[in-house]
Amino acid sequence: MIRRLLPLALALALSACGFHLRSALTLPPDLGPVRIASADPYSPLADDLAQALERAGAQGATEDDANAAVLDLISERWGDSPISVDQFGRAQEFTLRYAVVFELRRVDGTALVPRQAIELSRDYVASPTNAIGTEGEREILQRELRREMTASVLRRIDAVLVRGAAGAAAGDAAPTR
């Protein structure tokens, strides 16, 4: 009897907790084409963001297109710092940090998403005596952090756009004096 009720109780608890999948990023229809500007012309993050924005329904724009919103990647920085050392003073563990500063501007230059900074980090072990797999692990972490950074930037854009649309709708519904 209890074995039959337990799955039912768990299903009810999960549905009652408010869990729901995150919806896809939706851009406002008046945004128009989006151009990604980066200080690094070969930035893998810029390429990843361009693909993600196209999947979200944005039209890509070239550098020459003056009638395009601009997602400006102002700064991209990578850094390693040791977090532990062995008895000989050699670094054993490191923190890999990835920081990006960005903003999204409309065609007229007004900030749709104000300048924001995002920093992600991961810790990894790098044995100083056996460095064969260390670079491979670091490259894997870099790809993972770049993928997470792309998702983080899109979530920030979505949060500002949804909050802005909700605020505008609430402002429209407010009584006027």
* Model regions low in confidence, pLDDT < 50 over at least 5 residues: 169-177
Strand elements, count: 4
Task: Note the gap between the termini.
Answer: 63 Å
Strand content: 25-35%
Rg over CA atoms, rounded to whole Å, is: 22 Å
Shape: flat
Largest sheet: 4 strands, mixed
Helix proportion: 25-40%
Helices, by number, come to: 3
Return the average pLDDT rounded to an integer: 80
**Largest sheet: spatial strand order:** 1-2-3-4
| Element pattern in H and E | HEHEEEH
Structural class: alpha+beta
Give an overview in words:
38% of the residues lie in helices and 29% in strands. The chain is of the alpha+beta class and 177 residues long. The protein has a 4-stranded mixed beta sheet. α2 (44-55) crosses α3 (134-173). It is flat and about 60 Å long. It starts with a helix and ends with a helix. Mean pLDDT is 80; it is low at 169-177.
